[in-house]
Fold this protein.
Amino acid sequence: MRRKSLLALAVIPLLAIAGCASGADEEPTNTSSSGDEVQFEAKDPLIIGYSVYDLQNPYWQAYSEGVKAGAEENGAEVVVADQKSSQQEQVSGSLDLINQGISALIITPVQPSALPATIDAAHDARIPVVIGDIGTAGDYDAYILSNNFNGGELAAQFVIDQAGDSTETKKVGVIELHAGSVVGEERVNGFKEALAEDDRFEVVASLDGEDTVDGGYAAAQDMLSANPDLDIIYAANDASAVGAQRALETAGKSVADGFTLIGFDGNDDALGLIEQGLMSATVAQDPYGQGKAAVETALALLNGEDAGYSDADSKTVYFPVEIVTQATVAEFKAARADR
């Protein structure tokens, strides 16, 4: 897929979903398990089903609220099925939603490999399927997720901006997500590719943080032990960044003394550390906005309208992300609180 330039993507407004579509005039061919083209059907009343990964997670709570808000704005009802991180529950729960007479199905998959059978069942019932984050499989109709590659680019641009006109070489450590994570690879590749354009920066370590606070702590400790003069850590999620911050404290280093620590997600823990001056920045996702976009995309498909794909071949809609720093964190939190 062709990548847009760093600066061009950085200025995409949060709500300009359709505006960033590269294949907006291309209509996908939706096929059922039998290979026939699917003609979606809006039922009365108009109900959207949302099969959500796990409502114990604040991220998916916000996503669910976005789905509800998007449905209300468009005169639709919502039925939410909490799958509680269980692949088995998601398969049965999604089929139950289909059997309730919904008009569109949004799924945040516990395990993408389990999607094809659900998608086939939905298509047999003339229901479009929108995948909300995590990953895909099967003949889905749209995939909504954050622009993770651009998020990595934004993190790199922040690092470059922080260096200003200095000619000093900086050593960089990267904390990756678990092996096989597609979104993690995008976040890391976007960062590394953008940073490689500036020869003042050298990535000296790139380790798996296992997506957790403890994993981030261990990875950062290993980096700092091998590279006591490390200047920058970029973590591909906020949990790993929180762990890295604890490792910095143990090593006697801090953001206040010039170390740069960046996370990814925009979680409350990370925002709190940024406010306290203990973390430099995070690349913030918008699960609430993505939930609304998933509804709008589902309804467009249902009505035979343009789905606003960013990439028509993969039926993907990339949702913009933004960098949050100590200078902008108060405004960012206030804007989210007003929803």
